[in-house]
Amino acid sequence: MSSVVSTRTAPQVYAKLSLDAPKRRYDEEPADLNIPDNYVQWVLKNQKELPPITWQTLWGELNYLSLSILTITPAIAIWGIFNVKLRWETAIWSIIYYFITGLGITAGYHRLWSHRSYNASKPLEYALAMAGTGAVQGSIKWWCRGHRAHHRYTDTPLDPYDANKGFWWSHVGWMLVKPRRKPGVADVSDLSKSAVVRWQHRWYVWLILGMGFVFPTVVAGFGWGDWAGGFFYAATARLVFVHHSTFCVNSLAHWLGEAPFDDKHTPRDHMITAFVTNGEGYHNFHHQFPVDYRNAIKWYQYDPTKWFIWVCSKLGLATHLKTFPDNEVKKGQLAMQLKRLRETQESLKFALDPNDLPVISWEGFREQAKIRALVVIGGFIHDVSSLIDEHPGGRHLILKNIGKDATTAFFGGVYDHSNAAHNWLSMMRVGVLSGGVQHGLDDKNIPPSQRLWVARYNELSSSGSTSSTACSDVDEEGLLG
């Protein structure tokens, strides 16, 4: 153990309290102010993680507080389910309170305080702080510190919920054992200035008891006399569902679905995850545009948190709802669409480049057409042997043009052939007629499947690329002015 650098050490960044100005005593120096530019590599090189957990060391490595909350709570709920009758009023109240405390996390902890995607009035802040406390997932400051680290260091060893360590690790495992490495530094100095955040942090334990257990029990007890049901269903069982709903944002949202905006990292979009997590299921979008108050950008996608924030804005409780420019969102989608098209494009076979085909004279073509089913169309010589019995118009239309130029007939003289016909015909090219392509047929002779082409930037011609000499004629004042 002596050779292992403590996971609690990091680049020394100190919180600075101003003693000379009491009104600024909550100002902190940002935690990431003095970190090196190559911070991730620096940490991985200079701070060794703690040894792997083994069966022999497991008991000493467990996080007993989290373990207790995540095991005792569901045990109590299960006992209640088998021993306390569920009344319909309590069932409805449990669902309502599930959404209330869930919104405390999604609209409060997540979108308001972690990402500052909108501004909330003081009444709304206090309401979200209390609702989030009812979800029993740590204080706002603690939760946001971990979540900001997750976004900054996604899929690296400094990500506290690193999805690369497996589904169950990112779901609950990271909470059940002591971390092998301290999460990457993330600044939460802005939250220290919030009176609501400080208030919740100070009274957190009492708020947990009040909002997590007492309040839902009291509502059911005084409301319709179901004290036991209020405790076992609205408080305890509801809490289990809220826990795992939130945990799915770290696990399911990095495992199930597609990456329509960027596949560099693990976040994924899926409707099922959205239903499970109060609308946090469009996670690929969220990781690309985290300051956006929306998680789902299409009207039909399930995102009750977005709708809640929007309604609050109409009531004057929320302002400055942030949305990422639609133009930039579409760029992300386009990049992924082009990538998928490129993958499809590379899996297909296309016509040979004309420069790779032999040049054949008219006499040579006529001579070879006596032993092969050759036809000239648009200056290209095609071997149509395989087409004779497959031609929709009949064999006779092919046979009568063997050894001849059928350009006029193919390009609308007899039939204006479809894109599929053009693409298929291009695969039958075996040569180029000496003299080149007829005037006016340059575009038509490019198969439709190749008229639009997905090309990498380094495959483009120099005339269309950006180079360091592109501005060489611009004077210095123009470049700097």
From TrEMBL:
PANTHER family: ACYL-COA DESATURASE, DESATURASE 1, ISOFORM A-RELATED. It is a multi-pass membrane protein. SUPFAM superfamilies: Cytochrome b5-like heme/steroid binding domain (SSF55856). One of its GO terms (biological process) is unsaturated fatty acid biosynthetic process. It comes from Daedalea quercina L-15889. The lineage of its organism: Eukaryota, Fungi, Dikarya, Basidiomycota, Agaricomycotina. PROSITE patterns: CYTOCHROME_B5_2, FATTY_ACID_DESATUR_1. It is found in: Membrane. Stearoyl-CoA desaturase that utilizes O(2) and electrons from reduced cytochrome b5 to introduce the first double bond into saturated fatty acyl-CoA substrates. Coiled coil: none annotated. One of its GO terms (molecular function) is stearoyl-CoA 9-desaturase activity. Residues 462-481 are annotated as: Disordered. InterPro entries: Acyl-CoA_deSatase_haem/ster-bd (IPR009160), Acyl-CoA_DS (IPR015876), Cyt_B5-like_heme/steroid-bd (IPR001199), Cyt_B5-like_heme/steroid_sf (IPR036400), FA_desaturase_dom (IPR005804), FADS-1_CS (IPR001522). GO terms for cellular component: endoplasmic reticulum membrane. Its main location: membrane. It comes from the Eukaryota. This is Acyl-CoA desaturase.
